[in-house]
Input
Amino acid sequence: MKESPLQQMNLGKITTVAIRELPLLHTIDLRVAPSTKSFEAVTEALGINLPGKTGQFLTKPIPSEDEALALCLAPDWWLILGYQKAEHTLDKLRLNDEYHFSFVDVSGQRTTIELEGPNAQDVLAHLWDQDLREKNFPVGSVSQGLMAKAPVIICHIAPHRYYVIVRSSFALHLWSALSDAAVEWI
Amino acid sequence: MLYIPCPYCGLRNETEFHYGAEAGVGYPDPNTLTDDEWAKYIHIRANPKGWLAERWVHFAGCSRWFNLWRNTVTHEIGPAYLPFTEQPKAPSNIGQEEQKA
Amino acid sequence: MTNTNQILTPGTIGRRRAAIIPEQPPQLWKSVKPKKAYDIVIVGGGGHGLATAYYLAKNHGLTNIAVVEKGWLAGGNAARNTTIIRSNYLWDESASIYEHSLKLWETLEEDLGYEMFFSQRGVLTLAHSVSDVRSKRRNLYANALNGIDSEWLTPQEVKKLVPIINISEDVRYPVHGATYQPRGGIAKHDWVAWGYAKAASDLGVDIIQGTEVTGFDIRNNKVQGVHTSQGTIATGKVGLVAAGHSSILANLAGFSIPIQSRPLQALVSPLLEQVLNTVVMSGAVHVYVSQAHKGELVMGAGTDAFNSYAQRGGFHVVEHQLAAALELFPIFSRAQVLRTWGGIVDIAPDASPIIGLTPVENLFINAGWGTGGFKATPGSGWVMAHTMANGTPHKLNKPFALDRFATGHLIDEHGAAGVAH
Amino acid sequence: MSEIKFIFDDITYKGHHGEPMSAALLRSGLLTITNSTYHGRPRGIIGLGVEEPNAIVQLISDTKESMRPATVIEVADGLHVSSLTGVGALPEAPDEARYDKTNHYVDTLVIGAGVAGLKAAHEHLQLGRKVLLIDDQPKPGGHLLHLGMNLPSVLLDIFTNENLTYVPRCTAIGLYDQNYIVAVERRSDHLGEAAPAERARIRVWHIRADKVVLAPGAFQRPLIFANNDRPGIMLSHAAATYVAVYKVASFRQAIVATIDNQGYRDALRLHEAGVKIEGIYDVRQIASGPSIDAAKAAGIPIRFRTAVIDTLANEKGACTKVILSDIDTNETFERSADLLAVSGGWTPIADLPTYIGIKPQWSAKHAAFLVNHTTDILQTAGMLAGEFGGDDDPAIFFGPTLNDEQSRVAYIDFQRDATLHDLKRAVGAGLQSIEHIKRYTTIGTAHDQGKTSGMLTIGALWQLNNSTEGKNHSLSPADIGTLSFRPPYIPVPFAALAGRERGPLSDPIRISPLHQWHVAAGAEFEDVGQWKRPWYFPKTGESMDQAVRRECIAARKGVAIMDASTLGKIDIQGPDAAVFLDRIYTNMFSTLPEGQCRYGLMCKADGIVFDDGVTTRLGKNHFLMTTTTGGAARVLAWLEEWLQTEWPDLKVYCTSVTEHIATIALVGPKSRELLQELVTDINISKDAFPFMHSRNTTIDGIQVRIARISFSGELAFEINVTHSYAKHIWERLWTLGRRYELTPYGTETMHVLRAEKGYIIIGQDTDGTQTPYDLNMSWIVSKKKEFIGKRSFQLPYLQASGRPQLVGLLPEDIDEIIPEGAYITLYSAQADEDGKTPHTGFVTSSYHSPEMGRAFALALIADGLNRLGEIVSIPIGKKVLSATICDAVFIDKENLRRD
Output
């Protein structure tokens, strides 16, 4: 019954660059001020370990969820991907005015495109005007910005492997832009 | 393409930001102001030649507002600082004081 | 007046001699050192300042006037714009002043005795969406009631007028129609300013270049003189006509104005055979293009988002502009960008100018023309001269008073003008 | 180097693959390339690279491209070129080439792969830095290439360093703030027919470097004398390079005119290549240095204090004789030569640093403007920094004194045919600033942007000033000032700068999860911002009007369905969420009970309406705001701005969920009946589920939230579901809806339905000048609280009488749909003598209403609410329509139908 914006499209080859959609990752948007009572209560209830610095992400932030990722997008803003059972753990906290946080299921808001291969960075550099050098964007980094005028989030997942997380309404446009940028490698 | 230091995300191209004009103009109590004073709050912002403390928001990144010293003649970028924190001195002033010391 | 109606088929291999440019006159203006006193000092030797001086002399018989320019004459926005002339503005107040200006344009070459390549080749303003069409057509109906020539063209009619435009539905934002003002057009910007300078100089106005105004002698809230890098000049009246630097001058005189100074860029191509005989504007996709008399394409880009006095903008603005232009004119693909440049434009909150009195007696201001100042040059000078000579605004600039921001009576041309030129 | 053939002006020439076209043409003996733009004089090649003012040609191979210097075109098989006379032409065929852009961040960017640039690259590599080296030539070496010399091994070694990225054929065109450089790489033209199809023809590089080293080199200057533009007169460095390196054997006898030792070096090279040097004529009193010694040793005649004053030509216009003048005695004499090689000194390429406001400084020693600039981030090197190599010793001399007749043919800007006479005329006209003189004479405005003529102009003006009445002898060229350079450094095709932003990629197309369904259903689309929204769904053969009428009737009489997913949605949470909304909206939200919805209006601080939408209270501290489609980003930014910069004490978080939630509007009297078939968990009857209430439930086990919201006045349900299930829900409704003749509708029908109810569309019924009062919405302005914009309602003009107010209009002719945007006048108003007719408002929305069976409109009319019943005129061209002002609510004023 579910459909993702790109219907698991893929192109390219791993010897240069392989591009494919990782569809339907369950995604939670969490807003809470760090070093507060609310932060402690929320992270404890979720059983999650959050990266502390804007621009970093953690793999395996939840011991029970192998595939999950926690991205820190601003000092009080995280995106948690791949954590299925998160919602209900916070119901009690929501009703208590002492706690101030926001927790929103945004699974449909974006989809994820993976680029993998030795030329992945070359393809990105054609569309992405941020610094991708190892010293400024090592593995474990996440960044928001505009790619082909579409708002995206980029994660450097592993050497030669990136996620581009794009707003659903822009997904097809971004796919076209990536296909075009990759034309000399695919 | 200015290279603007977001206090949270680091240096980013200007196309990721929106401009918010002069910094430090607080929302006044509207009911205590004359029409002239209210018009001034709504419409008038500093427009100097030289260093200007101004507001920017990193809309394509962390979505945070911050303030920045920038020179409107040379496009030099000075220190960034967060709203509701103490404003650092204008860069030229910093230079002068260092010379005195 | 010049009107080149012949359009070559695009793609003819060029072996053409360029159009001959008429020689400049052997005498232009005298550059002089300032006297100790003048009846009137105009601060700013751009098109508007020179036009003000000219009309003060011609219409009001006031010739003991100095135009004081910080740099070289007409070296600011007068030298940096895309020369588009039109009057089809939305609001009555704007339409009236711009139409007055256009009428002056129509006789300006004869009036000044100076060739300025004024060419009424028509201005097209394109619409690209349902809502764009709606607002453009509203403009048209407003213009009709204001007696301004303006008509609606279908995409096919646009194509007939501009054969090189792409009206297919394949482009990202297709052409859904356009307003057309046949009396609109272009003129050669430098020559316009020079024509005014020469005519004013001939009438006895002193043109003083390389002289910066550093302050004002104001006593009892009344201006008595201007301090300059060449000493103090006593004067009875001062007009601030220094687009881009209006805030600085107002601050020197002790008051604030709601103006922000922004970079606005433009660009030009090398000489090309004539392919475009009409001015084409599109606010929605940010294209402003005409082909000048010699053959170069002249294009306006957008304003940068931040305040600046640097006379340069970001290159991304130019790149975006060219991408948009190619959507409409695929034929431009191999045209080259020869030169880009930036001006500093005064932007007022309602995208309309401020012309009139200031809180200081006998000190007058003319500012805030934003991206549209060139076309207003004659009209602006005319009403500014009237205002300064009489001490009260002309009926055409009365609505553009500084106090409108406190009364709330704004003339909001944002919707109509966009970043339009 | 393999031999290739290319065509120039329909004649086939031979050349070596990769060499400059100018070299191949010269080798074939072709001296005259074109005629000049205005004077029609024969002109030939004078330079070596982008400084070339004469040999500007047009590529014909593939897509035509005008205005390319023959000195920078590398010949390849299949090349086809024609000459131009200074006026280019545009191609008629579409440009099939690809253009791309890339972004590059690097420790050190070195611009120029001459010796200075290579040395800088070497140094920075030694420091362990990553270096990007860009150069406009096909091979590294710069000057050394022109001399036919190899790189020293220490510089050659850098090309094997893995920290070096070397990009040839890549020209920096702009230097911008914070070390941002734009460069243009030519990637396929030089390959000719062998270029791979997928390869981008030109790549634009956006480079940000921690440090930039500028080593751009210099151009040699011509000299000003009468008839200095004849074919056969060349820059000495270019002439010597063509002869010595490119084996051009077309010249037999050369004269070298010089102001520096470079002339001697070039004379030697010509001499060694077998060209007879008739003599070196040097304007200086005396000269010394290794090159002078070598020239003497080679037996080349040398004469000092002598300058070229004029030349003579053969019937083809090429230079045959040179008239020289003794500077001290003014005695003239004539010499024969088929090559006049001139060395007027070097002009370092100062363009890039001046783009960011760095001013070149005059150096008398170098007879040149230099930029010797070193900061932590930017450094100049090589000739630009004054490293001329030590054996130049130039005179500050730009040409001999010429009479009026001579100065009319003494060219300064070859391409613009601007002469010394023009310059004198400009000065005579009273012009002082070099910028005025440039504009008066048009010097420096042509394709080469004054690369050779700029410094000549400064020099000539300086000489003119110095010669007048013997005064001003203390002036230097620096007192004349420099001409402003403007990016780009070389002309760049529009297509290259547009890059990949072409066609659908020129601006993102945003689509809803139901887009493909709409496409399959044959929808016509409307652009709303970046969104594609279904406009209407025509059945075969149906016009837009017919489709919209059918859709309207379905919504009013049966059931219809619309995709409202593009509306902006913002999740708002926190203990102060309600307080926050009270400040943002003009009306109260803290009183809204949980599970209910309320329409809200927001203003900017100036009191002008800027967005609207329905906000639902999902929980005590939890709201979901909807915004207009176009306003989504704007409104979220607005909320964040107030929270972050004014009210940091408010505990509120805002999160965009625009694309997470898809919204399906089910509209019409039969909507409940249809929905009932799918929704079984909750009671959706009128009493159990009242208007402006919201309920969570499931459809097929899928979580949905249904709200009783109506933008049509009909009974309606908005079904909100996550993006990934949207299509399933829509298709289920569609399948079940067959029995009800469920009809999809688009934005046009939505507009008709809402207008019949007098509901506004922000941006259509408003134009950025309306207060809520102007929209007859005083009911939505709370008197009990502060909110943004409230203070402005007290401004005199905002509360003045006579402001335009939103009302309805009924045209006299019930079938006449008044055009939207039409202006309204008093009944039977006439134009005054100025041709102006006073108006009293304008039409914002106008449609045919199938429900009423007539046309109707909404309008903003001065004092309109007090003028109900008045008949007004609407002039449309020559026609004048009549209409009656009425209330803006046309249908169901009692709101009975929505339940």
Chains C and A do not touch (no CB pair under 8 Å). The mean pLDDT of chain C is 92. Residues 90 and 138 of chain C are 8 Å apart (CA to CA).
